[in-house]
Amino acid sequence: MRDLIEHVFIQTFQHPLAAAMEDQARLSLTELGNLGSHIAMTTDTFVVHPLFFPGGNIGKLAVNGTVNDLAMCGARPLYLSCAVVIEEGLEIETLFVLAQSMKAAADHAGIGIVTGDTKVVERGAADKLFINTTGIGMIPNGINISGHRAEPGDVVITNGYLGDHGVAILLARNELALEATIESDTQPLNGLVEAMLTCCENIHCLRDATRGGLATVLNELAQDSQVSIQVHESALPIRESVRGACEILGLDPLYLANEGVLAAIVPPEEAENLVKVMRKHPAGRQSAIIGQVKEGPAGRVTLSTTFGGVRIMDMLVGEQLPRIC
After folding, report:
1. pLDDT over 90 for what percent of the chain?
2. CATH class of segment(s) 2-139
3. What is the CATH number of domain 155-312?
4. N or C: which end of the chain has fewer CB atoms below 10 A?
């Protein structure tokens, strides 16, 4: 086990705190304090099937997913833990490739993988590999982003195409025969959020649209803030290939998981300039204003359709696609 940890993880992650091979990572309070007054901490477990899919893999997804959860409160991601549960029989080469992918994703996001844990279970007790990551970041002084801060008159913005990750997983499972290649949108969003905060420190809400998709995220924000949200279907960025796949399978792209898409709620006077800034960042080139926050009824999300009607966008009940992250 020590050889496995040293040769696969320690040598690949290349972080001095992890290389010490202690049971914990010792973080500097002085360094943390210089970056802000509040620590943000999150944890997530990844069980995606299959391990590799168009545009990414479970390792890249684990890093980006945790980085994005930190970024949604405006935090700067700093440290990451990595715990893996390995099924007996998983090829070492596969594990090594995934570890390299985690290292590349961590470098891209500017976060260090500093501690972890490794467990091997008997064949059949897990599906090849499960990964848990815990992230720590610092929230800069003066930043107050919360799901309870949406106000009537605010504007809803998103940064990218919807549903790409969910359809990419379908393709990887050979559940859908499409000529077009659709890749997962998995990417770190902390750089985009930092760019957003440079021009608009008063962002009210941020949430990454993962499980349950954009529709579920907006329902959560509407409930938490006790407001109503109206979305315009014509403004939603959805690829035609994704839209077509959803029509064939009876899925709704608004409820499909995304791994590189956020929903932002901001004051109306900040919206136009913020979208311009977002579009200059690689993770925000499809940024668009997609809706408005209204007074009520509290907790309701509606969609203005391209046919001129209005329908309610409920919270997702059940799981359209299991094990997508």
Report:
1. 89
2. alpha beta
3. 3.90.650.10
4. N
